[in-house]
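Bench log, entry 3. Co-assembly request; chain sequences pasted below exactly as received.
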Amino acid sequence: MQKSFLAIKNLAVTVEGKAVVRDFSLSVEKGSIHALMGPNGSGKSSLAYAVMGHPAYAVTRGKIIFEGKDLAKLKPEERARKGIFLSFQEPPEVGGVALGTYLRSIAKKQWSLPDVDVLKDAAGRRAQVRESSLAMRTIKEFAPSLGIAETFFDRALNEGFSGGEKKKSEILQMLALKPKLAIIDEIDSGLDFDSLKAITAALKKAVKDGMGLILISHYTRIFKSLKPKYVHVLRDGELIKEGGAALLKKLDKGGYRDI
Amino acid sequence: MPSNQLKAQYRYGFHDSAAPLYQIKPGLSERVVEEISSIKNEPAWMREFRLRALKVFESKPMPPWGGDLSNINFNNITYYARATDKQSRTWDDVPAEIKNTFDRLGVPEAERKMFAGVGAQYDSDVIYHNVRKDLEKQGVIFCDTDTAVREYPDLVKKYFGTVVPVGDNKFAALNTACWSGGSFIYVPKGVKVAMPLQAYFRINSKNFGQFERTLIIADEGSDLHYIEGCTAPVYSTDSLHAAVVEIIVHKNAHVRYTTIQNWSNNVYNLVTKRARAEEGAYVEWIDGNLGSKLTMKYPSVFMFGRGARADVLSVALAGPGQHQDAGAKVVHLAPDTVSSIVSKSVSFGGGRTSYRGLAKVIKGAERSRIKTQCDALILDPQSRSDTYPTMAIEEENVRVEHEATVSRIGDKEIFYLQSRGLKPVEATSMIVAGFFEPLAKVLPIDYAIELNRLIEMEMEGSVG
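Structure output for the full assembly:
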């Protein structure tokens, strides 16, 4: 049995008392792609929020285990520091901080070593600087393929961004943080063809480097290039079907009704 | 809801127990004004000036606009307190307790690192003053205004009260009646002062009124950067800071005036700052308002000469129990004058910010350009921000732009940033620091670092 590094076991989630996920289980291996599909309101995004630790999404039953550790008591930022990333379906606009400054800050933070006093420990500090500047370089090299101009980085984080620009901003943040596990929610809406292609390529490379990827979508298009090993279909907060790539073909033909 | 629990922290709230050598009993009267004048051994013209100003102060009503001034009790305020009987040129000569206070504020250290001259005012008097010898040799005068009245009477008489007249407003009149200390600077023709001159204003006494008076004259083609910082102890009763700053910027000269004000939460800060810009002159006000109970301050530039230019950057942070009513005034009195106002404000924990501004162009000031940009950031539903822009444009051939934005940071935004590895307090400080970046960019590096530290401190205590 391959060791899964994310294991969701019999999870139930409520929002303001209303059940949004019921008895859901999933296990993700390093370097694998999972498709999480289902009609609108089926609980896909709720599941993603619960994994990230959104305070409004209460886990009423079950467990989320990441790298052998129960996440229940961890705050969202602690989950992020462990290497979990969630790309939002609708990222909020944050006034004040410029995207470029922000990317540098989160990269630095992510690569500061929590158990070492970075100011005193030269080795720790070097690792932080090296890793974060490597991440920034990746971003700079990647930006042109998204059709982003330099001035994009001077704009306030997501403020006044178009739908597509917000998705690009999400991917740049993922590159800054280099997560071990990424949950990508509806990345394929609002993006032009070239940008989608570039983002797909970036995700592919991250997966090749060992990142676990959960792709949420209700269309099958994106899975043509990012081929999932497993497909999970949700409806009303419950897992109604699981399978391999063949399941996608079935969904393509008959939609969710036929399952 | 993390942002609800934000509470301000203030690290300059200590006071030392140096007893004043002399202080006038609380309350304001002709006798008090005469006593201040006689302590300073002033010429008759200045004493009469003060007494005239007192009459104006008494006759003017409190301003009905701006912030809540109803709790100021003019009878409880001490209008003059002297801590030491001499001014020192080296920190070693400053009485130990007072020196210790300035050490804790980092003033002597900053002087060594980055300033060409420093003045330090403690309650009513400037207790320390020093300027680099090479500047003195070039004819630069940097002293306290009391000394200037004695040693440079012609310059003072020529310019004092010409930019902010006695009758301008109630608090300028109060300052004119009771003024003590402040900086006097004269930069001769063509002299460019490469490093900034700094003044530090410290209130130590309780229920105290600090009324420094600053007068800056930049002669033709000269260049100056002046920086001031201010702090006060935390007391349960209120103090009053009512300064007047007058700047005369002659033809083709440039003055940048930077303020990083960080008063404690019990200080009313009611300041009149104004510059007169002649032909081709350039004035910059960089006004950072952190702290205080209520600040009402609108640095102004009157552009008298053709092609004069004014840039005002006004930045305000208002936390619990604070109201920052700040802004700017630009008055275009000649053709081809250009001004820009950038206002950035953040309110949190129930604090309130207001932008109040005036943009005026008189008939005949053709081809003038004005650009105003107001950005407000509100960190929680308890906090508030308002904008009161006034435009008085009498000339048709002008270009006027006004832009305003309001951003709100709520739970949704905080969770988003948490999901990127930031604690709520880090997220908030980062947003606020980012918002204030235009200010940090124009400050000397040590000041910029200090500013970021102050912001982080103000935001601390947010995680319950």
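The longest strand of chain B covers residues 267-277. Residues 22-411 of chain B form one domain.
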